[in-house]
Amino acid sequence: MKRILPAPFLLALVLSFHHSAARAQSNPEVTAAELLKHVRYLASDQLEGRKAGSKGAELAAQYVANEFKRYSLKPLGDQGTYFQSFEFVAGIELGVLNTLSYTFRGRSTSTVVNRDFRPLGFSSSESFTGDLVFAGYGISAPGNNYNDYDGIDPQGKAVLVLRNAPPSDSTRNFTQFSSLRYKAAKARELGVKALVIVTGPADSDTDELLKLSYDQSTGNAGIPAVHVTRKVADELLRPTGKTISDLEKRIISTGTPQSTPVAGVTLSMTVELKEIRQSTKNIIGYLEGNDPLLKDQLVILGAHHDHLGFGGEGSGSLKPDTVAVHNGADDNASGTAGLLELAQAFAVSQGSLKRSMLFISFAGEEMGLLGSAHYVKNPTVPLERAIVMINMDMIGRLNHRALLIGGIGTSAGFEDLVNKHNADSAFVLKLTKDGFGPSDHASFYGKQIPVFHFWTDLHPDYHRASDDYDRINYEGMEQVARYIWKIASDLGEAPDKPQYVAVAAPRPMGRSTRVYMGTIPDFGGESEGMKISGVREGSPAAKAGLQGGDVIIKFGKVDVKNLYDFSYALGEYKPDDEVDIVVKRGTEIKTMRVKLEKRN
What pLDDT, on the 0 to 100 scale, is given for residue 600? Predict the structure, then answer.
């Protein structure tokens, strides 16, 4: 005979069963098992490398949002959601009108795009018609006793130049002058109106046109620029009686420029490039504190969830010839997993929180800190409420107990805090004072917010397709995440808030003769010029009065259109030189004078 249990007992049994099942699937504490679960999904082939703007990145964002909802975090994105969407330039494509033709002795010859020529990804979209000169490798290096522009007048003309650079030797090093961006910047500085690049036979057996690729971190070069085949270059050079091969061999054998006007040739070209714009999203969740005096203050924890997609040229992959899913288990499924586990742990104890906490999963970090740059410009909680930002980027490869922590100099007491919670020497701490660096914490430090940056160092799988979930040290991840939890807990409860400290610029190791300026680029900015997110304390830039948000539009004689222009202009000077800089600050145009310093 069956025994019929009372209804209240049955209800209690069912609830107990569901509670046990839920705990088996979701432990409120940070655990290696849950970290594995998160990383295994985020770094799965299904998400196709989580490239910003892709379906995989959308799946990752939805996963994080679902977890935030499950932990009962308050959504603080757009229109009551967890998502803060923003647009970015994902790439470049050819427009309708891309032409190149030339006229010699009354005869006009047209070429075919993608067969005979192809615009370069940093080209401006505009037209040119005029004279042509051959300018060797397009290098002006007085310090190396070499100048391809000597003896020719490039002003207002198009220049035909070789890729790369002449061979370096014990007395001359041309490495820094070999990039196409340098050639474009130098040409524009000298008044050139169009740039034509060709690959000489000494550099390549093949004569393939360069792929159209977009540089995420900078704008266009301010000059139309194309790559042509050697056949087209030889046709352009016909009036000189020489070929590209002849001229290249002569430069290499003599070590001297062979620049020459190309008499009688009129070059016409039109470049039309279109930006491919996509949208992606940060995910933002909030836990409100309970202390009447402290709850308006905010501890921010963050990590980026994007990676490199399928890799390939221009993706950031360190094996760009390998087109395969770059799962990014350590970079940065590990940090995202840590963020989720900490969000869950703090949500469980929300009733005892004193300060409020904000959890942000950033998009577009791999493309230049786009998500964090967008957030600090469009905060969903006023930035003045933030007392600290804690960033986790690559926390999954703990090896020999080594844990790297950046930002410990950004507020007094940070070093004591990290040592306090490592009294048992669980970690071998490697500490860096600087608050700037190549991850999302830099965007917050640029807004004068103290920061921490936690990571477990680079490894052979970094930015390669081999960075997969089975190579993560999950027990080590758990230790790191629990350690960060302790530090964040202290920061959330301490009676006094951390005070921002401007850290003096670190000096790089080794000997260097390069000059030092101390500006921090704003990679998320799309303004023409070189926008800066901040300047290093005590640097020449700081002494000159530059500040975060300034857009450098002229450096010395050089009009600055992008970061490359600024870098190459800076390279023209030596320590102790004084240079006038023109910046745009809001609607004002200001001129400042900076005295450059030696790097070491």
Answer: 61
* Residue from 378, 514, 393 nearest 442 by CA: 393
CATH architecture designation of domain 515-598: Roll (2.30)
The Cβ of residue 130 has, within 10 Å, a number of other Cβ atoms equal to: 14
Tokens of 436: 């700037």
**What's 97-271's CATH class?**
alpha beta
Q: What pLDDT shows up at residue 581?
A: 94
Residue keyed to tokens 């410009």 = 377
* Domain 27-88+277-493, CATH among 3.40.50.720, 3.40.630.10, 3.30.1490.20, 1.20.1420.30: 3.40.630.10
Distances (CA, A) of 267 to 104, 224, 590: 9, 13, 39
386 vs 310: CA distance, rounded Å:
36
What single string gives the DSSP state of each residue in 171-200? Answer: S---GGG-SHHHHHHHHHHTT--EEEEE--
Confidence of residue 6 (pLDDT cuts 50, 70, 90): very low
Q: Which CB contacts under 8 angstroms, 24+ apart, belong to 422-428?
A: 422/483, 426/401, 426/479, 426/483, 427/401, 427/402, 427/403, 427/479, 427/480, 427/483, 428/400, 428/401, 428/402, 428/403
Average pLDDT for residues 100-120, to the nearest whole number? 97
* Most distant CA pair in the chain, distance: 111
Closest of 206, 199, 193 to residue 180, by C-alpha: 199
Burial environment of residue 469 by CB neighbours within 10 A (0 to 12, 13 to 18, 19 or more): buried
- Three-state SS at 33: helix
Q: What is the pTM of this model?
A: 0.84
Domain locations in the chain as residue ranges:
27-88+277-493, 97-271, 515-598
Q: For residue 416, how many other CB atoms are within 10 A of its CB?
A: 9
Residues 224, 269 contacting (CB under 8 angstroms):
yes
pLDDT value of position 571: 81
User: Can you tell me which residue has the tokens 């986790």?
Assistant: 392
Structure token digits, residue 175: 């490495």
Cβ neighbour number for residue 299 with a 10 Å cutoff: 29
Bridge-based pairing of strands 99-104 and 158-162 is: unpaired
Exposure class string for 82-92: b at 16+ Cβ within 10 A, else e: bbbebebbbbb
The whole-angstrom separation of Cα 451 and Cα 414 is 9
Q: CA–CA separation, 594 vs 543, rounded Å?
A: 8
pLDDT of residue 158: 98
What are 158's two structure tokens?
């198009």
200 or 510, which is more confident: 200
Whole-number Å distance between alpha carbons of 198 and 184:
13
Q: Which two tokens stand for residue 572?
A: 């023209």
Token pair 């991840």 in the structure block, residue:
477
